[in-house]
Specification:
Blueprint lengths: L4 E6 L4 H9 L5 E6 L5 H7 L2 H8 L5 H19 L8 E6 L3 E2 L3 H11 L5 E3 L10 E2 L8 E4 L12 E5 H11 L20 E4 L1 E2 L1 E2 L13 E7 L3 H12 L6 E7 L6 H11 L3 E5 L5 H11 L4 E4 L5 E2 L4 H11 L5 E3 L2 E4 L4 E2 L9 E3 H10 L10 E4 L17 H9 L5 E4 L5 E4 L12 H24 L4 H20 L3 H6 L1 H15 L3
Length: about 500
């Protein structure tokens, strides 16, 4: 689509809203549609109020019924417009909305990018931490979910509707009375036809009413070029004999069939949430999912790995309750090589307690490691500064894990290994050795030294062990450097010397 037609619904008693809205209309040709002013008796004849009360848990208000009828009147105009093709989208708005600058081109981009759907909601009343407001030229992302809660009850003030879907809805209304509000999209549209913009194009000031149960776990899976492994990964979570979780799949602009695989699961399973975004790297993908997550605890799973067992979440949940909701639960990983599997054991005598008090023991026993996957983190921890993943392409969880220590006070250990971590071959680190990854390691070490300074000044009891931890990160960094080709070592010689000077300054007395 190169241009967009629109309708704006307004109240005749509040024409100032219509005037303000049209002034912000940009390139969209909006046609005004006055709110339907039917009396209560007439409204009752048009709605199946008994069924609606069962669905909503209360009676529909006359205002909700008038709003719904007003939108249906717009659908009728769309269906009858011979200038529109069946696959064309139309933008439907309410005059009380405040569109973001640049919304018109962004709406066209949404229509072209997500043209496989019939209705794309471009606003949402959820807190801003779950969504972002559109800024000019910002990459546009959308959520696809089988969970009705992402689509229902969050406003119908700004959405794209395809003509073919409008015709289908009107055909169904010809034989059955309405039992829904227009803003409850998933009650009258097939879920396979719905998408929810994550980058919102219009502001709504209605408060969020969230009646969904908060899940115990949010499992975050960043996805990029892992299609051959993805079904095994997803199925290993869906096989859990436990209900209170959400599985957030983040398609990071993967060029393979990853999105199609994820979309199929999102359509079929209500606990699966799919975030489709422009490629920004694994750190950004995890960060976006953390902002979206609703669970009490957050878990990380890579798209080419998988879980072994069906009682993992139920056992973790029981452990969390038994240990009185610790900040973190430590698990461990099994290494899956092409020709064999290596089962690691957690040889730790302390199974719960104060993390700062026992940090030396946890680190030396290999319980506290640089990976994010063996950590089940209480979601409120991410309200603290510097708890999101740094914007680097590799080794992002090394810095993240180092920074996290100071915020984790209580811990518990889940003794059963279930995370199946694919590796190239035993003892090999060559797959992580390259010039870009080495540059990332040098940059990461600067961030770790900044953190070490903070720990020395504010968490002195942790300082000796955190200094030792930093030195081991340095040693791994140099091990990777020595595996580079000689010409690449020469290319990075200046960065290496700067790195060694930093090590000498901060760590020389160990």
């Amino acid at each position: 689509m190169q241009s967009l037609t629109g309708y704006v619904i307004y109240s005749p008693t509040e024409r100032h809203q219509l005037s303000a809205f049209l002034q912000a209309a940009e390139q969209v040709r909006f046609k005004p549609q006055a709110v339907i002013e039917a009396d209560t008796a007439s409204l009752s004849l048009m709605f199946n109020e008994k069924k609606a009360k069962t669905v909503l848990g209360r009676a529909l208000t006359p205002q909700e019924m008038r709003q719904t009828l007003s939108h249906i009147a717009v659908w009728q105009q769309i269906a009858a417009d011979f200038n529109l093709q069946d696959e064309d989208f139309v933008l439907i708005a309410e005059a009380a909305q405040q569109p973001q600058a640049g919304f018109s081109q962004a709406a066209i981009t949404y229509a072209n990018t997500y043209n496989g759907y019939g209705l794309i909601n471009l606003q949402h009343t959820a807190p801003e931490s779950h969504f972002t407001w559109y800024q000019t030229d910002e990459p546009l992302e959308a959520l696809v979910s089988q969970n009705k809660g992402y689509y229902n009850g969050h406003g119908a003030g700004f959405y794209l509707l395809k003509k073919s879907l409008a015709k289908r809805l009107l055909t169904e209304l010809a034989t059955e009375k309405m039992a829904w509000r227009v803003e409850d999209f998933a009650d009258y549209c097939p879920l396979s036809q719905l998408a929810q913009a994550r980058v919102l194009l219009s502001r709504s000031h209605r408060p969020l009413i969230n009646t969904k149960q908060t899940p115990r776990f949010s499992i975050i899976v960043p996805i990029y070029n892992v299609a051959p492994y993805l079904e095994q990964c997803i199925e290993s979570v869906l096989s859990q004999q436990y209900a209170h979780y959400e599985l957030i799949l983040v398609d990071d602009g993967s060029p393979d069939q990853g999105f199609e695989i994820c979309a199929r699961y999102a359509r079929e399973y209500p606990q699966v949430v799919l975030l489709h975004k422009i490629n920004g790297g694994v750190a950004q993908a995890r960060n976006d999912a953390i902002r979206l997550a609703r669970g009490e605890y957050i878990m990380f799973l890579d798209g080419d790995d998988y879980w072994s067992g069906t009682q993992i979440l139920s056992e973790l949940s029981a452990l969390i309750e038994q240990r009185q909701y610790p900040d973190v639960v430590f698990t461990y990983m099994t290494s899956v090589y092409p020709d064999h599997v290596h089962y690691h054991q957690l040889a730790c005598e302390v199974m719960q307690g104060d993390l700062h008090q026992h940090f030396e023991h946890l680190y030396k026993k290999g319980v506290y490691v640089g990976f994010c996957m063996p950590k089940v983190i209480k979601r409120t921890i991410f309200n603290q500064p510097d708890t999101f993943f740094p914007a680097v392409d590799t080794f992002e969880d090394v810095v993240w894990s180092y920074r996290l220590v100071k915020y984790l006070h209580s811990f518990a250990i889940y003794p059963n290994t279930f995370y199946m971590y694919r590796r190239e071959r035993e003892g090999s680190i060559t797959s992580t050795v390259s010039v870009p990854s080495q540059i990332d390691q040098f940059a990461n070490f600067m961030l770790i030294m900044d953190e070490l300074e903070l720990i020395e000044s504010q968490y002195s009891a942790l300082y000796p062990m955190m200094k030792h931890y930093a030195r081991e990160i340095h040693q791994y960094c140099m091990k990777c450097f020595e595996l580079l080709l000689p010409e690449n070592q020469q290319m990075l010689s200046e960065q290496k010397e700067k790195h060694l000077a930093i090590v000498q300054h901060y760590l020389s007395d160990e």
